[in-house]
Design brief:
Radius of gyration: 18 Å
Distance between the termini: 35 Å
Strand content: 35-45%
Keywords: Isomerase, Metal-binding, Zinc
CATH topology: Jelly Rolls
CATH class: Mainly Beta
Order of helices and strands: EHEEEEEEEEEEEEEEEEEEEEEEEE
CATH superfamily: Jelly Rolls
Pathway: Glycan metabolism; pectin degradation; 2-dehydro-3-deoxy-D-gluconate from pectin: step 4/5
EC number: 5.3.1.17
Helix content: under 10%
Enzyme class: isomerase
Structural class: mainly beta
CATH architecture: Sandwich
Number of domains: 1
Catalytic activity: 5-dehydro-4-deoxy-D-glucuronate = 3-deoxy-D-glycero-2,5-hexodiulosonate
Number of helices: 1
Length: about 280
């Protein structure tokens, strides 16, 4: 588990490219047959990746969180961005196809992640985990790809027509504070989340996936009047503090997992910024 300490917007003007990437980009979450994690002190969220290829991988108890088991004091949302796989939670097995989501509540002791067709067209399962502290337990719940609350957003004339699947949210799968879903851009659209916004009440993280190996997303971050950018590849995650915008444009079609944690779970609680006012 890698530690990322919280930052303030006043630090952004002095950061070069290398420091921006070191603080906000998680480029190597997925490795064969192991779990890798980043602990961000923005709302104490953990981002983790698990790619089981030849064996089942258990979600480990990282010593940095000081718990007997990973979900002793936490909850998690898990999205499969790879080939088909299963997640067994305390003996109950859930099948996750590409793009499906499993919410795992506080108190689950054993979480086992397995690929069911590692040699198939989509390759091994790649489980992306977003976890936050939880004060109570909600039931472990599976949402298959396309079965969440679906919202159609944007316009092809502004190149941001997209389908947003809300999985874990206040009107869907219940949680303490994790909010999670998947957005897929329509053919010919490359912008996500434009106009950009912030929400001072919670942090957010993006994991870009289904992006060709030779393509990139130009991810905008920073204060609206002091923006910076990161070049992000397939299955790389970006940590977005509550004060930062989070928007991007790709050189090819892509999807992304968005996940939030913090003060509330209202998806529309945001402060938008017209592109003409950004710098």
């Amino acid at each position: 588990m890698e530690q990322r300490y919280a930052t303030s917007p006043e630090q952004i003007p002095g950061m070069g490219t290398a420091e921006l990437r070191e603080r906000y980009l998680a480029p190597a979450l997925f490795a064969d047959d192991e779990a890798r994690a980043v602990y961000t002190h923005h709302d104490r969220v953990v981002l983790a990746g698990v790619r089981p290829v030849t064996t089942t991988v258990e979600l480990p108890t990282f010593p940095e969180i000081r718990s007997e088991y990973f979900l002793e004091h936490r909850e998690a949302g898990i999205v499969n961005v790879g080939g088909p796989g299963t997640i067994a939670v305390d003996g109950t097995t859930y099948e996750l196809a590409h793009g499906s989501c499993l919410y795992v509540g506080r108190g689950a002791r054993e979480v086992l992640l397995t690929s069911t067709d590692a040699g198939g067209e989509q390759g091994p399962a790649r489980f992306y985990v977003v976890s936050a502290p939880a004060h109570t337990a909600y039931p472990t719940t599976l949402v298959r790809a396309g079965e969440g609350t679906v919202r159609e957003l944007g316009d092809p004339l502004t190149s941001n027509r997209r389908t947003l699947n809300q999985y874990i949210h206040e009107n869907g799968v219940r949680s303490c504070q994790v909010v999670m879903g998947v957005t897929t851009l329509h053919p010919g659209s490359m912008w996500n989340t434009m106009p950009a916004h912030t929400h001072d009440r919670r942090m957010e993280a993006y994991l870009y996936f289904d992006l060709p190996a030779d393509a990139r997303v130009v991810h905008l971050m920073g204060r609206p009047d002091e923006t910076r950018h990161l070049l992000v590849g397939n299955e790389e995650a970006v940590i977005s503090p509550s004060w930062s915008v989070h928007s991007g444009v790709g050189t090819a079609a892509y999807s992304f997992v968005w996940a939030m944690a913090g003060e509330n779970q209202s998806f529309d609680d945001m402060d938008g910024f017209p592109i003409a006012d950004m710098r």
